[in-house]
Amino acid sequence: MPGLPGLERVAARGALTRRIAAAALTCLTLVLGDGGTALAAADGIETAGDILQYVLPAVTAGALIGHRDVEGTRQFGESYAVALGTTYALKIAVDETRPNGGHYSFPSGHTSSSFSCAEFLRGRYGWRYGVPAYLAAAFVGYSRVESDNHYAHDVLAGAAIGVISSAIFTTPYRGWQVALRGGHAALGVSLNRAW
Prior knowledge:
- By secondary structure, the protein is mainly alpha-helical.
- Helix content is 68%, strand content 7%.
- It has a two-stranded antiparallel ribbon with strand order 1-2.
- Helix 1 (4-32) crosses helix 2, helix 2 runs parallel beside helix 4 and helix 2 (44-67) packs antiparallel against helix 5 (127-146).
- It is elongated and about 75 Å long.
């Protein structure tokens, strides 16, 4: 029976991963709704960046649902609202011309949204979630410059807004930990909570 706690952890992680994946897929389906026709006009790297801009909030929602994290949901809502509110207020106030000739270049909304999610995942659940999220957010930023939608300073400002907004509101997750314990003479369940 000594191997049982490790097997239980593996099974619990697998179940949590499946819940997070299912919730993220559901959220992504709701976000894209009409099959993503708005994304159909773009090509290559730009399309991948546009899709990741929606995937990151969907994965964040999936993690919140998978962890049943009510407090995290409130924190993410606040940080995301501040990131997007700040971004769009600056877009209107600055009204910088985009490299492709459009309006409202500074700062990048795609990037502030993506980095807000990445920093929330890192700050709430640790680097295991944060590293892939930051890599995806960095790709979103790169795609905005590569596709001539933004200048590098637009992307850097968007990233800073996203990271700072999440850093302000996010605290580490302190959920309940359930483990099955066993030995030669006993079998039991332990319930722990980090404060």
